[in-house]
Amino acid sequence: MAAGVTRVIAVVGPTAAGKSALSLALAHALGGEVVNADSMQLYRGMDIGTAKLTPPERAGVPHHVLDIWPVTEPASVAQYQRLARAAIDAVAARGRVPLLVGGSGLYVRAVLEEFEFPGTDPAVRRRLEAELADAGPAPLHARLAAADPAAAATILPGNGRRIVRALEVIELTGRPFTARLPEPRPFYDAVQIGVDRDPADLDGRIAARVDQMWAAGLVDEVRALEARGLREGLTASRALGYQQVLRFLAGGCSEAEAHAETVRATRRFVRRQRSWFRRDPRVVWLDGADENLVVRALAAAE
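-> C-alpha cells emitted (302 positions)
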C-alpha cells in the first residue's frame, strides 16, 4: 500500500449518472482534489464529446491526469496507472483527499488494486498488427476465441487493438489473457461510491447530453481533431461521438444518423459499465437522483 495514503475515495458508475457533480461537492466538503479515471479525457482536445469539465466548471477544485496524450497516442493503462498513482500520492502529501473519478472500470481497478501488466514484444506486436491490417479483426478474434473463450466474449469482434493485445499476452505468457486479471488486492485504502440512476432516467439524460454536445460544437471539435490525426488514432478515434462524427465527415452517414447512433452507442456502453461495476461488492451504490445524494456519499466516505 502506498505510504502516507490513508484513504482514496473513488466515484464510479455509468456515463451521465452524475459523477462529476458529486465529485465537486465531495471535494468542497472534504478538502479534496480530483484524479481523472475517464480513459478518453486523457486526450488533449477531446473536450465536448467526453463531457470534460471546463476550468470554470471545476469550481476551484484541482483536477489531475487530464489532457496528457495527443489523439494519435494509443491508450496505455500501465502508463495511466503510474500517472494516476503519482497524482494520488501528491494530493495526499499535500494533506488533501484524493478523489478518483470516472467510469473506465479497468482504469479504476488498475489504480486501486495490486495490478501488474504483462510486458510487450515489439516483434510479436508488429506481426499481429500486420495480420490485422491485412485480414481485418475477424480471423484474429476467431483465434482468440479458440485460445481464450472468456477473453473473446468480453472483447468486441471489431476491436482490433484489444484483440491484438490479448493475443500478444497469450503468446508471451503461455496463459489465457483473462488469467492476467488478478484477484482483487487493495493497493490503497479506498471506498468506492457508485452513482447510478433508473435506466429510463439515465436514457433520457444520455439523449439530452448528446443534444448538448452537438449544440456545443462537437462536429467542429472532431473536424479540428481530424486535422491533428484523430482518424489515425487507434484509441481516440473509437471514442463515443467521435467515431460517429468521423463516419459522418467521411460521408458514411448523415449528421442526423451520427447523432442518433451516438445516443444508441452510449446507451449500450452504459449497460457494459453498469455490468462491470455491479460485479464488485465493495462499491456502495447511491441514486444520482436522490436529493440527499451528497449527504449519503459523505456518510459512505467516513
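The chain is about 50% helix and 10% strand.
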